[in-house]
Amino acid sequence: xxxxxxxxxxxxxxxxxxxxxxxxxxxxxxxxxxxxxxxxxxxxxxxxxxxxxxxxxxxxxxxxxxxxxxxxxxxxxxxxxxxxxxxxxxxxxxxxxxxxxxxxxxxxxxxxxxxxxxxxxxxxxxxxxxxxxxxxxxxxxxxxxxxxxxxxxxxxxxxxxxxxxxxxxxxxxxxxxxxxxxxxxxxxxxxxxxxxxxxxxxxxxxxxxxxxxxxxxxxxxxxxxxxxxxxxxxxxxxxxxxxxxxxxxxxxxxxxxxxxxxxxxxxxxxxxxxxxxxxxxxxxxxxxxxxxxxxxxxxxxxxxxxxxxxxxxxxxxxxxxxxxxxxxxxxxxxxxxxxxxxxxxxxxxxxxxxxxxxxxxxxxxxxxxxxxxxxxxxxxxxxxxxxxxxxxxxxxxxxxxxxxxxxxxxxxxxxxxxxxxxxxxxxxxxxxxxxxxxxxxxxxxxxxxxxxxxxxxxxxxxxxxxxxxxxxxxxxxxxxxxxxxxxxxxxxxxxxxxxxxxxxxxxxxxxxxxxxxxxxxxxxxxxxxxxxxxxxxxxxxxxxxxxxxxxxxxxxxxxxxxxxxxxxxxxxxxxxxxxxxxxxxxxxxxxxxxxxxxxxxxxxxxxx
Length: 608
Ligand code: F6R
What we know:
Layout: E1 3-8, H1 13-23, E2 31-38, E3 41-48, H2 51-60, E4 67-73, E5 88-89, E6 95-103, H3 106-115, H4 127-136, H5 141-151, E7 154-162, E8 168-174, E9 179-182, E10 187-190, E11 202-205, E12 211-215, E13 219-222, E14 228-229, E15 234-235, H6 240-243, H7 251-257, H8 259-268, H9 286-291, E16 294-299, H10 301-318, E17 322-326, H11 327-330, E18 341-347, H12 353-364, E19 368-373, H13 379-383, E20 386-389, H14 402-422, H15 427-447, H16 452-461, E21 466-471, H17 474-490, E22 493-498, E23 515-520, H18 526-537, E24 542-548, H19 552-557, E25 560-564, H20 573-591
Parallel strand pairs: 16-17, 16-18, 18-19, 19-20, 21-22, 21-23, 23-24, 24-25
Antiparallel strand pairs: 1-4, 1-10, 2-3, 2-4, 5-6, 6-7, 7-8, 8-12, 9-10, 9-11, 11-15, 12-13, 13-14
Helix pairs in contact: 4-5, 8-14, 8-15, 10-14, 10-17, 14-15, 16-20, 17-20
Bound molecules: fructose -6-phosphate (F6R).
């Protein structure tokens, strides 16, 4: 997500900030901007596009000064544009603010500020923070920051500067990372260590709720009670290359670990004060929903697999028939699409050519298009009637992980909303499921603390020529996604089957020692799955089960079991896929292949 750099000291702030932002490019972004305070007061520049666009402009229009803040934006609220790029300013441009994260109560704050006469130049949630700083500023930037922090809710890393006080800036942190770089006669704050590594190796992370007051000679950190916190800086020993992955060996592993936060961000920004799901960018009315006689889900690859899980959720909760189609096939099949059809298009990048072509075909046939995408302002988002943005943050590794789990969350939330509109769910069940959905983020965080079992499995399968994944019901969809993960990065032939279908042909492939991963999380299907596992065991398969804690029956028939915590059957795909992601990851590492950039594949497939 967005990159942040703040600097105060004796050097040219523009140079320090731009070089810092370059080190944060790996985070993904769509626009960049900077504000510097110097003898000409506050000067700034911000543009949609690559950092080089900003850099080229600054070559001809340099900003002079020794204090400033810079930002690379990954759009959430508002399309990528010059206006929406950060910094954002108060009315008379004396205050500049940059922000990473989401201000969840920005609509409330915006209404309050509009009433007070503040005018907004952008569609961002961040701009409310600039105006809040203006509203509370009384000559003391730190005190203003305390006041602003008490008003905002959400996830944020924020830096703010004021033209009248060109020797200081403040940094606020809640959930979005910020690191302080301690220099000599200069100090830095950034989203990640690489941005400051050229200047200092002495750093300390800000914790949630902390505010740093930064001058050239000092950094003082305050906790939520406004007491001074003594920070113990540590010395960075890593190389710049390793640090860009946030200390992880690969982007894929980093992104697997970012899933809990992605789930939280995707849910929390869409809850209203009464605990109902509020889908801002979806304008479907109760009448629209009543009109739909079917839903099509159209997507490619991993996004398609998310759609197949989505089908279960929508059909079970909202009782609307759902058909899933691969985008590259959809438009050649003369699909049953008309103005009574809702077409849900799923795409992480929002640019996949097959998916975009399918969207256009569905639109031509009169369907209402709802897209689920991770990239604000992408082609698919722009051409859809309604959009659900997954707040997964930029996904760099070719193998999709956090996009998938946030797409699942999107489907659960959409299904719950459709169900409520159609009266196919009672409020008790509705709130119970929302509660459990929220809890999955913490559960997953806990699960990710130990991947030793997945490593063990990777060691067992790494030299095998082929591997099979089995599942029933929604577990079959998880099995499909796990098989795709393994084959695309480890190049091991992996196939998934509906466990009950095996005996109708595929079981001929099983021989002594063939590894089989059996996903069994659905309480109503455990016994049937056990029978299918016994069928492959009888032919010599080595079976690794993935099931819910407490399922001793599964353990009794498998050679090895990886347990996930028990949640509602409908929600298990959010958790059960993760061991599959980790098995694929560790197997690939053991084989020595390039995890993040597998052969023959591209992150965004823009050809049909
Ligand atoms: C697999 C993977 C691909 C994508 C597919 C669709 O790990 O990443 O299968 O899911 O190419 O891409 P998007 O979601 O960008 O449309």
